[in-house]
Design goal:
The protein is of the alpha/beta class. It has 7 helices and 7 strands. It has helices spanning about 20-30, 40-50, 65-80, 100-130, 150-170, 195-210, 220-230, and strands spanning about 10-15, 35-40, 55-60, 85, 130-140, 175-180, 240-245. The chain has a 7-stranded parallel sheet with strand order 3-2-1-4-5-6-7, sandwiched between helices. Helix 1 (about 20-30) links the parallel strand 1 (about 10-15) and strand 2. Helix 1 crosses helix 7 and helix 3 (about 65-80) packs parallel to helix 4. The two termini are about 30 Å apart.
Length: about 250
Amino acid sequence: MLIGLKDKVAIVTGGGNGIGRGITERLVDEGAKVVIVGRTENTLVETASQSNDISYKLADISKTEDVTRLLKDVVDQYGRLDVLVNNAGMAPVTPFSKLDMVEFDAVFATNVRGLVDLSLQALPMLKQSKGSIINISTSIVGKPMANMSVYAASKAAVNSFTRVWAKELAGDGVRVNSVGVGPIWTSIYEKTQLSEEEAQAHVERVKQIVPMGRFGTVEEVASIVAFLASTEASFVTGADYAVDGGFAA
């Protein structure tokens, strides 16, 4: 068991499935109480049903009013917040020539605006608890891939926010870190405008350029997030932990 997570309260955005669900399950295993957030109620309900220590809030973090309501509910339910995991995101695999601005706006609304808005509104509680913000980013920021320009750009912004916030908030006892995930096999790879053949080619290309020769697992990401949320990482802030099989090395 990691030190310092028992009875802590965490928010995990995009916690209903994929990496978010894996993070939620690991934090609960470590003794935390987790509020998962998302836009698809059936996946939230299914994940929340796994433990009495998981509750869910239906919310779109790209909407300020949803963020405000979410945090009010957390205050009403728990009276505190110790850990914010900004995991919700969109990762379309779209060639630049096929990009439309509707997709661009949607990616930045969730990956950047929503992350900033939620972190800002949660800050008073995190200062009070001397808590932690963990932003889920991607290793392709440092090693860009074709057909993922918008996703990479949005996460480059997240990495910049992480480093600056870490410096600004250190005096308040709030730690801010990011996890640069590489290819992790989740349903997000199915949400693409590529043809079936193009999508399969993308998967094979990814496997070839990862030194470890495989996709990672959500559990491998969750273990790093749990460490960063715990007091065992009490002197870690402004860091970006790569969980990518050596992809960006």
